[in-house]
Amino acid sequence: MADEGLAAHRREPIKSSVSNVAAHRRRKNAATVGKERRESLVRAKRLCRVGISGDTDVFLENDMMIDEEQSILEAQTSSAVEGLKSTVAYQGKGAMQKRVNALRELRRLLSRSEFPPVEASLKAGAIPILVQCLSFGSPDEQLLEAAWCLTNIAAGKPEETEALLPALPLLIAHLGERSSLSVSEQCAWALGNVAGEGEKLRNVLLSQGALLPLARMMLPNKGSTVRTAAWALSNLIKGPDPKAATELIRVDGLLDAIVRHLKKADDELTTEVAWVVVYLSALSNVATGMLVKTDVLQLLVERLATSNSLQLLIPVLRSLGNLVAGDPNTTHAVLVPGREITDHVIEVLVKCLNSENRVLKKEAAWVLSNIAAGSVEHKQLIYSSEAVPLLLRLLSTAPFDLRKEVAYVLGNLCVAPTEGDGKPNLICEHLVSLVGRGCLPGFIDLVRSADTEAARVGLQFMELVLRGMPHGEGPKLVEREDGIDAMERFQFHENEDLRNMANGLVDTYFGEDYGLDD
Amino acid sequence: MAMDVEEKEQLGFPYWKSVRRTFGPESPFFASGNVERELIAKQVALDLTEDEKNKLQNLVAKECGVFFCPIVGCGSRLTSLEDFEDHYNAQHTASCSICSRVYPTSRLLSIHVSEAHDSFFQAKVARGYAMYECLVEGCSLKFKSYKSRQQHLVDKHKFTTSFEFFKKAHSSKKQRQKLQRKQGTHKREEASCMEVENESIDGLVSAVSKLSTSDSSPSSVSFGRRHTRGLTFVPRAVQRDKRPDAT
Fold first, then answer.
1. pLDDT grade, residue A294 (50/70/90)?
2. Which residue has the higher pLDDT, A21 or A121?
3. pLDDT score, position B80
4. How many degrees, rounded to 5, is the angle at CA A370 between CA A366 and CA A375?
5. What is the pLDDT of residues A45-93, one digit of tens each?
6. Is a pLDDT exceeding 90 seen at residue B78?
7. Contact at CB, B83 and A460, closer than 8 angstroms
8. Which stretches does the entry tag as region Disordered (chain A) (predicted)?
9. pLDDT at A34 exceeding the cut of 60
10. pLDDT 10s digits, B222-233
């Protein structure tokens, strides 16, 4: 094994061969669909725009095409498809080269802007001809160009992506171990776009056996192919059916590869692998269980501690969050208070809470809230950590969605672990201290918000205060912070649940007898 | 009084419960993180400056000359040793030694060989055994006829009806003549196999010996059981696969 590593190192200069460099460039230049189509941003498809032979005419940064240009492009596309058809029919001398050239022309047209002329290509009948170009035994260049065309066609609208159906078995077949790396990578890319389209196509791909060959492509230590395969897989298993995720974790060698990549891979590969872990841990209990038994938690924490790449931190944090949320073993068996790893987890979560990024802050708070939902020792650990002062600050100053998560953390610190159905016990020490440090206004603010869940959380915390503060101080404190006011808003509120909650509290603690003992 | 209060609380209020909260991957809770993912991907795309692009291009031009695949009849354009290995693996190893069709996986190759060239296979089919395997790895169903397997692919695995595993390839005139020659003078299976293999090995030897990264060409070149250290450059793939034990 050590030798292999040495050998790989020595080969570095040669390693930047055309295919690696090109794939690297392609990767760096892949653009998603344009800003105007906002919903597409979440559709997780990637256009392939820059290629192998160093075409400099391909990449355009400013792609506002006027109508005239668009129709010219469409006309060119139709004629490119026609040209391609005739080369496939032609059997004579130099047929192969002619075919590759025709494919290349079509590919260029499909790579130029953020809105490739997909509709025009489909109308001209590109798919059947591209499928023919994918037949077994075709030269690599032909396979590559054809797969590339399909990749960009698949990055379009749903019905356009569906048009790729006839090509799918062949694209999957060319993922095989006997295919050249660039061909298998390009096919993976195309399939990734198809899978990113939606559940229906995902299911088709799964039934056609796409999972296993893509999984195998994740096993090598490095290379752009590994990264593309990981990205495609993350699209393939994202469900909502958990079957694919469970199947994936069971692939021989895959769990091992995940651990290896989380440990050693560069930022880009680790990012895609982390997304795979996100979906595995969100969807499959089997996967979560298996992951928790490896070093994955430790590795995730290390990445959170050392990395500054936002695109890496997001899926890594979320993976950690899913593992904590999805399996009680994570907090019971691995993140046990007293262990170093547990201290580190709190540290990195605080680091995320201190970051500038909204997503990191919110999801870190969520993870903390789940750890705080663990044992009494977990609550004590968080309570006495540097997290609390920070959380108290955020409760008053942060944007709304973050405040809600922070509220969950603080509330969980004050309530003992759930046992049975009865009223959960309070942890008075924590409650008194936190209220003493001024967290009540923040909760009452949540009660005032328009969000039902937030109001509920606020009311529940108020109940804790009313019930649990010693010497009957609760009601006075609540009154002082205008809590009664906040609750009375719900007196005739349309939401029955909130209405009952608020009225119940008011009746119980601020009834006729209130204030009489003063 | 106290009792009444207790009762009231027991009845109505949903007390704070310290529990873990999970979210599905497509939950709105994760939406902003998901959007970040694709936004960032797009940003990265615009990051490569002109300068960097030039540097990359120069790097490529300096290190790799262009050469052509030495395997007889191939001539594909290659740009590096790695490219050659890659290409060799793809085009010159998973090919049927009888009809030269190439497949992207060993499994598909082996299925093809059984179905197209094995008379024992055909004999079993004739006797009614289910011999045609489903092409999707992991499915493991078998069928009595090519057609029924095809139907299964369409029905169960959503292949399109136009997909054909075994297409009658149009062979070049040269290939057809070769095939006719073999059929005429030898018994089909064993001898033709041998002949093709010998031919391709000879071709390889002569071609690869021309490809060398050192100044002096080796005086003797051989494959098979004899060691290959005479060559200064042989792609790993060639060394690995060209052993006669692999029949």
1. very high
2. A121
3. 66
4. 155
5. 777 776 533 344 444 444 445 566 778 888 899 999 999 998 888 877 7
6. no
7. no
8. 1-36
9. no
10. 333 323 233 333
Nearest by CB to residue B25, choosing from A183, A282, A424, is: A282
B142 - beta bridge partners? B133
Looking at chain B, which residue has its C-alpha nearest residue A93?
B172
pLDDT more than 70, % of chain A: 87
Residue A124 to residues A75, A329, B75, Cα–Cα distance (Å): 10, 56, 33
Tell the residue number behind the tokens 């790449």, with chain if given. Answer: A309
> C-alpha A2: how far from its chain's center?
34
Q: What is the DSSP annotation of A116-182?
A: --HHHHHHTTHHHHHHHHT-TT--HHHHHHHHHHHHHHTTS-HHHHHTTGGGHHHHHHTTSTTS-HH
Instruction: Tell me the pLDDT band of B40, cut-offs 50, 70 and 90.
Output: low
Contact between A481 and A448 (Cβ < 8 Å): no
A44: left (phi over 0), alpha (psi -120 to 50) or beta: left
Whether residue A36 has pLDDT greater than 60? no
**Under a CB-based contact definition with an 8 Å cutoff, are residues A146 and A130 in contact?**
yes
Report how far apart, in Å, the C-alpha atoms of B153 and of each of A474, B130, B132, B156, B157 are. Answer: 69, 15, 12, 6, 5
B199 vs B72: CA distance, rounded Å: 10
Give the residue from A218, A334, A320, A318 showing the smallest Cα distance to A269: A218
The C-alpha atoms of residue B228 and residue A390 are separated, in whole angstroms, by 68
Interface of B with A in 80-99 (CB under 8 A): 80-83, 86-87, 89-91, 93-95
What pLDDT is stored for residue B82 in this prediction? Answer: 64
* Alpha carbons B124 and A211: distance in angstroms, whole number: 32
- Whether the CB-CB separation of A386 and A423 falls below 8 Å is answered with no
pLDDT at A201: 95
Q: Does B2 touch chain A (CB under 8 A)?
A: no
Q: What is the pLDDT of residues A409-452, one digit of tens each?
A: 999 999 999 887 778 999 999 999 999 999 999 999 999 988 89
In B93-132, the residues whose Cβ lies within 8 Å of chain A are: 93-95, 100-109
ipTM of the complex: 0.81
Q: Is A449 on the interface with B (CB under 8 A)?
A: no
- Rounded to whole angstroms, what are the CA distances from A161 to A127, A155, A208, B234? 11, 7, 16, 43
Residue A254 near residue A220, CB atoms below 8 Å: no
Calpha distance A260→A320 (Å, rounded): 17
Q: Do A315 and B37 touch (CB under 8 A)?
A: yes
